[in-house]
Design brief:
Layout (H helix, E strand, L loop, with lengths): L1 E6 L5 E7 L6 E6 L10 H12 L3 E5 L28 H14 L4 E7 L1 H12 L7 E5 L9 H19 L19 H9 L18 H4 L4 E7 L9 H10 L7 E5 L10 H12 L1
């Protein structure tokens, strides 16, 4: 595995993990979800190793929401990481990796994301319909409007604090309470996560106008949608979750796979996920 660096249009440097650097036939690019990274999402290490064995290149593409916080210098002087992430930056993040792959001479590019990264991929593809992407992959796709109950309670607790800070022009301040007992947000990042309509592009459960399918319906490429049977974001019916996404896509012949007896990060079923991705890419 080799670390690569890509530069976004806004001048930030992102680090990706490249497997199979000597191959140029196909490059699979998978971007992370909330706080995701190569160390915690070990299933993507297995995917990278398996694809490399089969002479296919793989990049785990850390976007600006990777890790909780990284104190590297950015164009705007702020750290990167989920704590500071703004969803719309994913367009420039993913474009930097796609440009790298094109410049590197890959004949085919497959673009995918995990969890919150799936929403980023859908948004990117909807904004770049003519880009050189052959297929796309949604791993553990999520409906960002349908927060789990404890996440909703956390959001309800933080919202009045965030709005008070906003009124005081403290958008860069950290909120004093962890969101969902998991990560700190700045006021700006929290409000973006809750309110940004562009991320609400897989409205599997959402009602009352929260999100729509227009982005997904504009995608021309064949997709692969895969999820663990016990993924809590499927709320008890993983197959129905994936079928709903397929039914609301432009084409209805996308590939769907449910991996038994595993959850959001495919623990103990990493090799099975890798084989499904390999089969789809081939």
């Amino acid at each position: 595995m080799k670390i690569i660096e890509v530069e976004t249009k806004r001048g930030d440097i992102l680090c990706g993990c490249l497997y199979g650097e000597d191959f140029r036939t196909c490059c699979v690019i998978i971007t992370n979800g909330t706080c995701g990274n190569i160390f915690e999402n070990k299933f993507l290490q297995v995917v990278g190793e398996e694809l490399e064995k089969n002479r296919i290149s793989f990049v785990y593409a850390h976007n600006s929401g990777a890790f909780h916080r990284i104190d590297t210098k950015t164009a705007n002087g702020k750290p990167t990481g989920c704590t500071y992430e703004l969803f719309d930056n994913c367009i420039e993040d993913l474009q930097a990796y796609v440009d790298w792959a094109k410049k590197s001479g890959f004949k085919k590019i497959v673009l995918g994301g995990h969890s919150y990264g799936t929403n980023k991929v859908v948004y990117y593809l909807s904004k770049n319909p003519h880009e050189k992407i052959d297929k796309y992959i949604l791993i553990s796709p999520t409906d960002t409007s349908k927060l789990k109950e404890h996440e909703k309670l956390s959001a309800d607790e933080l919202m009045p604090i965030a709005l008070k800070f906003k009124d005081e022009n403290k958008m860069d301040d950290l909120l004093p309470i962890l969101f969902d007992n998991y990560n700190f947000y700045t006021v700006e990042a929290f409000l973006d996560f809750i309110n940004n309509q562009n991320s609400k592009n897989l409205p599997i459960y959402s009602k009352n106008g929260q999100g729509n399918w227009k982005q997904l319906q504009s995608i021309n490429q064949l997709g692969f949608f895969v999820m663990g049977e016990k993924d809590s974001f499927a709320f008890g019916n993983t197959l129905s979750h994936l079928k709903t996404i397929n039914e609301n896509s432009k084409y209805k012949n996308n590939v769907i796979s449910v991996i038994d007896n595993t959850g959001h990060t495919f623990r103990n079923k990493e090799k099975e996920l890798a084989n499904f991705i390999l089969e789809f890419v081939r």
